[in-house]
Amino acid sequence: MLTVPEASARILADIQKLSIERIPLLDTLGRVLAQTVTSPLTLPPWDNSAMDGYAVRSPDIVTATAAAPVTLPVRETVAAGGFPSGPLPAGMAVRIMTGAPIPEGTDTVVRVEDTDGGVTSVIIRDARDAKKNLRFRGEDIRQGQVVLGPGAPLSAAQIGVLASVGASEVEVYRRPRVAILGSGNELVDLDRFDEAVNGEKIVSSNSYTMHAMIRMAGGIPIDLGIARDDPADLRARLERATGCDLIVTTAGVSVGEFDYVREVLAGLGAEMKFWKIRMRPGAPLGFGMLNGVPWIGLPGNPVSVMVTFDLFVRPAIRLMLGYTHIFRRPVPVQLEEVVTIGAKLTHFLRGVVRVHENGTLSARLTGPQGSGILTSMSVANALLIVPPERPRVDVGEMVNALLLGDDASFAEKFAL
Prior knowledge:
CATH topology of the largest domain: Molybdenum Cofactor Biosythetic Enzyme, Chain A
Oligomer: single chain
């Protein structure tokens, strides 16, 4: 059996970045830039005020105190979007708003709080702002500067930068289309929930979990439905994956009498690379290539699906999207309870990590670690990694943890 790093390397060796497409800037959140973007302009385009106040020459206000204020005539008011009428002579002030260009000759903006707020003349009661509160031309971006290059992940800040240099459309790597196929006679969709209530069937929660995880990773889920434990049905559904960039199945890759996925894939000409790894939960994991398309076969238990998806499918999707950093970074945490595991397998335990006031991290288990306890994943914010050479880890000892979550709900679980 392969180790987790070996299995990951095997999968990623057959994954490539996808083709490039040009899309509107507002559609680029979560995508990866595939071009070099150069600024056609300088920003800010002029020296401007960093706050509301009065533009002055610093020698005119250096003696100002509350007991001995300085009074200056106000030549004019300049709002954002306006321009001063000309250079400012000594002994005068310009009332100015945040972002407005400062007059030539000034080197200071006195904040309005240190004045009487006058319109025709101003009383200045403090010199603490001498030579402060200015934003200089080009301090952000210079004309001709490369602002972002290929491989840059696009979040709110990057999108703002691109807008500021006029990039209304940009080239990004295409989002992967990820086919999802569940299998099992016992599974039904939500439209047959009454059969689950009666104890006859089980809702295919894995399909909904994977839909969400694929979208969170940046992919486009393509639902192939739920296949019966019948080779013909499995084959027909897998053949509908044409045009997808990745195929993910759940269940059917073990050694049970009705686990047909491997058999059907082989009949379709798939090249099978492996189908078992040294981890728990998730040992029955398969990987192969079907007509040039990567296939990852996840186990059927709900927790196993989520853990193996996070370790193997998520990095594959992120690599297709063009990300450089595709894995979650492990962080050391101190255990709050004793943990024991079986030998030979690396265990990924559901845990809750806490941040303490001194900045250290500690972790406890969510409770029983059965691979069918999906509710445990809803409260976990981390996977605690316990290698086989550590069958017992005592209170206070350190283990590595993979912090989970790609959205705001993670912060709610990451409590003190």
